[in-house]
Design a protein that fits this description.
- The protein contains 10 helices and 13 strands.
- By secondary structure, it is of the alpha+beta class.
């Protein structure tokens, strides 16, 4: 591991200059966690899509921890009854992974809709999750699949459901992987047809569904039940979404139900076709 300081100049006429910062490059998860533990003015950088954008907008950190040299964070592996995706796996890595095509093809298909080609080549699954951007669909997809986020801290490993039902990790916790369970009966659809107003993902396992709603809240909202899933019932079960120029709260809420019910019917029809 080594670190050094750097000074940056203007990046464009429309952005501020990036202030000087210290750059650390750990070679292992342990080193990265040690660098992050207890540091309030430190953050990690992987693909850099969101961190650099924030720095160009004036956000300052005294130290950036570059995770790019930690190869173990880039792997996608089969581990028992789930697929573990390293936090540094890029969107492009996920799109090409043969193991995902075999065991989680619906997840792989949904993930190919994230970002443009520049973002897909550089951005990572961990970056998408940790950006905590209301317009990102990473947690929407993972949440309906029952995925768990694997964090490492100075005291050990912590697993948190992607649907956020059991709280958030400590600010100095390092996301190292995502565990997506495998189920031979589960299917999933992501509907982004109304982004950036609303996005909806629905998974169906036997007759049990999970619905995830993005873009309408500061964090994704999830709803589960046993079918059928109807538009009115889904909408009534959701809290009131945000209201802004992209769409009123009432419109977002109503359309979340419409998209969820439509996706549910499509999944049911798909299942019937498989039986035939």
């Amino acid at each position: 591991m080594y670190s050094y300081a750097t000074n940056s100049g203007w990046v464009s006429r429309s952005h501020r200059a990036i202030p000087s910062f210290k750059l650390a490059r750990p070679n292992s998860v342990t080193e990265a966690v040690d660098l992050l533990t207890g540091k309030r003015d430190t953050t990690v950088i992987a693909g850099g899509v969101d961190v650099v954008r924030r720095m160009r907008s004036g956000h300052e950190w005294s130290t950036l921890i570059d995770l790019g040299g930690i190869e173990e964070l880039k792997t996608i592996t089969l581990e028992g009854d789930f697929i573990r995706i390293g936090a540094l796996a890029s969107h492009w890595d996920i799109e090409r992974a043969v193991i995902l095509n075999k065991y989680l093809p619906f997840f792989q298909k949904a993930w190919t809709t994230i970002g443009n080609i520049r973002v897909r080549m550089a951005g990572t699954i961990g970056g998408n999750i940790m950006a905590n951007d209301a317009g990102y669909d990473g947690r929407v997809i993972l949440g309906v699949l029952g995925a768990e986020l694997e964090f490492m801290t100075g005291t050990g490993e912590t697993l948190i459901p992607a649907n956020g039902s059991s709280g958030k990790p400590a600010s100095d916790a390092l996301l190292v992987g995502i565990k997506v369970p495998i189920s031979s009966n589960r299917r999933m659809i992501l509907d982004r047809s109304l982004k950036p107003t609303i996005s909806v993902a629905v998974s169906l396992d036997e007759d049990r569904y999970v619905i995830g709603v993005g873009c309408g809240y500061s964090e994704p909202e999830f709803q589960s039940g046993v079918g059928p899933a109807d538009a009115v019932g889904v909408s009534l079960g959701l809290p009131e979404p945000i209201d802004n120029p992209l769409g009123s709260g009432s419109y977002r809420r109503r359309m979340a139900g419409v998209l969820a019910a439509r996706a549910y019917r499509a999944l049911m029809d798909e299942g019937l076709n498989d039986v035939r």
